[in-house]
Amino acid sequence: MPSEVAEYVRWGESDECRTMIRGTRGGGRRCSEAVACRAREEREARKWFYGWYDLGGFIPAPIMAIYHPRYHPQFFLVTVHPLITYSNMLTFIPRTKIIMKEIIYDPLEYNKVYRNILGNVKLEITFDETEIKAILSYLNSTFNWVWLEQNAGYASKGPLSIEVNVVERMPILNVKKINRKYVEELANLFDKLESTARLIIIGTGASLSKEDEEEEGYGKLRMFKELRSIFREIDSKIAEVLGIDVDVDVLWDQAWEMMERRVKGAEREARPGAKPMTEEKPSEGRRRGRRRRGGGSAPITSFF
User: What are phi and psi of 118, to 5 degrees?
Assistant: First the structure.
């Protein structure tokens, strides 16, 4: 092994490295003897792992998401491999073949290497990069944001908790069922969203005041406000594709209000139409009271 890895293994097996969990919860033991580490050395796990320190290899994931987004959910494209993430990321491992510019994802190849680690492989389906970007455009839309605000968990005054069991139920745009022209338009909008977000973050970092820097996540909140026009384009295109009669500006206002309630830890129901957090009148120009044409309301899932 490389000297750095060998040193890491030595350290993990010494008394220098101890788990930080309370002793009453099974903590305080050597890191190499922690539950997760011991599980890697069990007989059944041996087909994937090679020691307590081994994470079982690498499978590329073209789509990732921030596990605990504080404001707007973020789903992004990953084109550089190999790489390593940290615990605040969700990785979406493909069960289908995906042909990207930089890499081809083939679940059968990874099953050969990792002894059939991926189940329910869809051999009859292949996606290209344009289709993946169109899916990402939907995942970052206000339609998906509203759904997550209503279905994902969250901590008081804290971020959304986008758990695996939540995203498994998440409605998704079927790019195989819509006109290719729309797929390409949605893909282009995702490229526009991503490139603009990068420019905003670079500019925001140089222009934040001392007070802004002290407010956690302020740069991200500012970024989402400045990206509003592109989100509107994405939402309008999705509404056009699916034939949904909805005012996308009202939809955004509802999602934004739900986010504000979550972040501020409001002790009231976090849903569109709930009583305001304060008795102050909404700022001029904000269209909280408008309803989608046709009257009434319907859950997002009814459109899919």
Answer: -100, 120
Q: Please give the average pLDDT of every successive group of 10 residues along the chain, which has 304 residues.
A: 88 88 66 87 76 81 91 92 81 92 89 86 94 97 95 79 90 93 97 93 60 56 92 97 93 93 67 55 46 50 57
Helices 228-242/218-226 angle, 10° precision? 50
pLDDT at 128: 96
Strand partners, 161: 153
What separation in angstroms does the CA of 94 have from each of 55, 79, 101, 118, 172?
19, 14, 16, 9, 15
Number of other residues whose CB lies within 10 A of the CB of residue 44: 7
Residue 303 inside a domain? The answer is no
Whether residues 75 and 128 fall in one domain? yes
Range of the domain at 9: 3-47
Quote the tokens at residue 230. Answer: 């592109």
The residue whose two tokens read 């930089």 is: 102
Dihedral sign for Cα atoms in the order 134, 138, 140, 142: positive
282: preceding bond cis by omega (within 30 degrees): no
The answer to whether residue 302 is domain-embedded is no
Examine the domain organization and report whether 152 and 20 are in the same domain. no
Q: What is the pLDDT of residue 140?
A: 97
